[in-house]
Amino acid sequence: MGNCFTFNHQNATKIYKLRYSGEHGGFRAQMNVNQAEYLNWVYTASLLVFLHRREETIMGESVSYQIAPGEETTFVIQRNVYTRLGKPYGLCIKSKTEVKSYYNPGSAYTIDSCIRSCYQDYVQQICGCMDPKYYMAYNATPCDISKSKPTT
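The chain above was modelled as a monomer; its predicted structure follows.
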């Protein structure tokens, strides 16, 4: 569907820290987007931007922002930290070691990845394979297209 570039990835040897906001202190990129590199059904080549913590692995449906060619976009980000209430209001998971299954290899625990792991376990139970769109157990068999057909 296009090209993929990552800045400040969790496995990078150099870590860039944001010290000042704005053009001179933040990250700035200019890209040339070639429509011919995209599949036929993609009508407008664009840049998708995913803003997330370094430790967090993104997926295709993660929150993203689309930037069309010829556009200039500025993101002003602010970190919000939430503290969830413990018992009796709920059990808060803080680490992937606290759940039965967690297939995302990233170092950060995320609720989205936990939900996808539960989904994978369910697909494995029903179909005997796992959805190849998401992270799977290392020994799992990926489902093929025949498993996606609805049963009658």
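The helical segments are 111-127.
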